[in-house]
């Protein structure tokens, strides 16, 4: 059974820490970007999410949003699934979209990565 509480590290060295996991599946924590970022000044930013009921499914889907502290104009949404292998090891697989603030609708095409 997969539970999101605790610390998770991404392939690029980013770290997600889920510090509060509520019975309803909602969770709070922080996210610190890894080596993939070119800004060494980024600090841990708050995240808020929701996990599918882990008592109903062994490998729940989840989603969370990070509001970047230093880059108030950035928000990243993650969606994925928690997998448990035969040995009981938990792994998260997720996709993300980063939205950047732009000055006007004409620049909207470049606002999401």
The total strand number stands at 7
Judging by the overall fold, what is the CATH architecture?
Answer: Beta Barrel
> What is the CA–CA distance across the termini?
32 Å
User: Can you write the helix and strand succession as a string?
Assistant: EEEEEEE
Overall structural class, as computed from helix and strand content, comes to mainly beta
Which percent range fits the helix content?
under 10%
Please give the radius of gyration in angstroms: 15 Å
Q: What is the overall number of helices?
A: 0
Disulfide bonds: 2-82
Subunit structure: Homotetramer.
Main location: secreted
InterPro entries: Avidin, Avidin-like_sf, Avidin/str, Avidin/Streptavidin-rel
Summarize this structure as a short list of keywords or feature phrases.
113 residues; mainly beta; single chain; Lipocalin
List the helices and strands and how they pair.
Blueprint: E1 6-9, E2 15-21, E3 26-32, E4 45-51, E5 61-67, E6 74-84, E7 90-100
Describe the structure in your own words:
The protein has 113 residues and is mainly β. The protein has a single domain, classed as Avidin-like (Lipocalin). 0% of the residues lie in helices and 48% in strands. It has no helices and seven strands. Strands 1-2-3-4-5-6-7 form a seven-stranded antiparallel beta sheet, with no helix packed on it. Strand 1 (6-9) and strand 2 (15-21) form a beta hairpin. The protein is elongated and about 50 Å long. The relative contact order is 0.17. The model has no long low-confidence stretch (mean pLDDT 87). Forms a strong non-covalent specific complex with biotin. Keywords: Biotin, Disulfide bond, Glycoprotein, Secreted, Signal. GO terms for molecular function: biotin binding.
